[in-house]
Specification:
The protein is mainly β and 63 residues long. It has one domain. Helix content is 10%, strand content 22%. The strands form two sheets. A two-stranded antiparallel ribbon has the order 1-2. It has a two-stranded antiparallel sheet with strand order 3-4. β1 (22-26) and β2 (35-39) form a beta hairpin. The longest helix is centred in the N-terminal third of the chain and has 6 residues, at 12-17. The radius of gyration is 12 Å and the shape is globular.
Length: 63
């Protein structure tokens, strides 16, 4: 999270509620930097999942 944010973690449900249907993912692994737009329907998680808990490399798929 960005420095200064003090609210609860954002869930997939929160993002749907504001009209979003996908997230932009950028892998932060050393020397990787794969990036992809991932529709929520392709995520294997419930709407109550926290976005900060998602772990995958966009180049390799979800983990």
């Amino acid at each position: 999270m960005k420095k200064g944010y003090s609210g609860p973690p954002v869930t997939i449900a929160d993002l749907r509620r504001i009209g979003l249907s996908a997230i932009e993912v950028i892998c932060s692994a050393p020397n990787c930097w794969h990036a992809a737009r991932v529709p929520f329907e392709q995520l294997s998680v419930s709407d109550s999942a926290y976005v900060v808990d998602l772990s995958f490399c966009a180049g390799l798929g979800s983990q």
